[in-house]
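Summary for the steering committee. The consortium agreed at its last meeting that each partner would contribute one worked example illustrating the joint modelling workflow. Our contribution is presented below. We chose a case with several input lines so that the handling of multiple components could be demonstrated. No manual editing was applied between input and output; the record is shown as generated.
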Amino acid sequence: MRQQKIDLHSYTSIGIGPKVDVLLPESEEDLFSFSEQKIIGNGTNLLIDENFNSNLICMNHLDSLEINENLIYAESGVLLSRLIGTCIRKGLNGLSALAGIPGSIGGLIYMNAGNIGKNSSLKKIRCFTKEKGVYDIDVPREKFSYRKSPFSDDVIIVGAFFEMKKSYGERVFEDVKKAILNKKQTQPIFEKSFGSVFKNPESVSAWKLIERCGLKGKEKGDAMISRKHCNFIVNRGNASFSDVMYLIELCMEKVYNEFSIMLEKEVVVLRGLNR
Ligand SMILES: Cc1cc2nc3c(=O)[nH]c(=O)nc-3n(C[C@H](O)[C@H](O)[C@H](O)COP(=O)(O)OP(=O)(O)OC[C@H]3O[C@@H](n4cnc5c(N)ncnc54)[C@H](O)[C@@H]3O)c2cc1C
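What follows is the complete predicted structure of the assembly.
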């Protein structure tokens, strides 16, 4: 198994983080040699403190993709964009509505991004734990909820089995284009961010609450609450972990004071010691 120093400042989509030692499993066998460490996928839903200095396991080298007619096995490090590109070429539909989410298959399932846990194309999930080793499970659909999967931190998602609907490449391409266009119009997808900062409370969108508190465009250092979508914080240059945390806490405080609603973070925050 490879070990490498990775600069999380350039690896994560928000562009914040230290250089750390990262273990890069390249096969299922490699997973057996880990002790308890934090997993990262493609780093698109993470905010990592510059003082964070634990080892990480990065799943992006476990990235083989097997296709047999409309059946697909994707290892956890396969990016959704690559899987969707393959589906366009092969004329396979089922995941097009998720196009534009920049995560890996492992991150997607762990975060239940795009509600993947309820997607009927996803048939089985391959998992790993120290106790059980590698094992496959049927998708426990009822246990997935909004931005939440049933997996605890000791489970590594190794891969996923999909059964896609046969279609036509042009048709799949059109569906994908529609999903990406919708994202382009509503989200700052060309700026550095980690996607939505907060989960939407039950009856209202988090961005509306933040906007109503007058926080649109609010800045701290190079971090800014996006003018395009108030539930995004963008890094316009050299924003630090504390700049972003300041804005996150400000949103939580103002929204609570104004509406008595406690916003819950969607972004996964990895803090360093003493923070
Ligand atoms: C511009 C932009 C748009 C976005 N749009 C959306 C959207 O529309 N909908 C949406 O839901 N999300 C969206 N996101 C958020 C993000 O892309 C998703 O949550 C994505 O699924 C995270 O995947 P990742 O591989 O980057 O995971 P990471 O950010 O690397 O990790 C996220 C979490 O998943 C865990 N994890 C990752 N891989 C594994 C694994 N193999 N096994 C166990 N745990 C694992 C990590 O420990 C961490 O807790 C967006 C982000 C950006 C930057």
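The radius of gyration is 19 Å. The longest strand covers residues 122-129.
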